[in-house]
């Protein structure tokens, strides 16, 4: 039986611990990469407060291509080095952007987005894509979000064979 109830916690760290536990329960019982990414995006979108987009861009033939997500329709392809997602992919580091309107070259898929966090998906030193979360709230993301979303990517790497979906 799937647990689709919204996660409630007394603080942000406990929230993320419960969220990652729930996502891992989905990942550990399913082998299909696309199904796992879809459920992960859905759980993020359903449970993170004050966000308007959560999902993945996957490396395919040298660029980021839209993957499973929750939110409004999004940009389909992003070149490495372009926008927040492309910059995080190029630099292979997490970007927290308090105000996307001040980020040079920001790609506005949803005009309601005001802040963003992007975590690169790297396994065995190979970039397979990025996890992207947008918010209509300025300064929505902090070091706690960064820490736990990076932990989430570690869990994804444990269960997902990125070669089944990415073309690096």
TrEMBL record:
A single GO molecular function term of this UniProt record: L-methionine-(R)-S-oxide reductase activity
InterPro entries hit by this protein: GAF (IPR003018), GAF-like_dom_sf (IPR029016), Phosphatase_reg/MetRdx (IPR051330)
All residue ranges annotated as the GAF domain in the record: 32-154
Top-level taxon of the source organism: Bacteria
Cellular component terms per the entry's GO annotation: cytosol
Classification via PANTHER family: FREE METHIONINE-R-SULFOXIDE REDUCTASE (PTHR21021:SF15), GAF/PUTATIVE CYTOSKELETAL PROTEIN (PTHR21021)
Family: Belongs to the free Met sulfoxide reductase family.
Name of the molecule in the record: GAF domain-containing protein
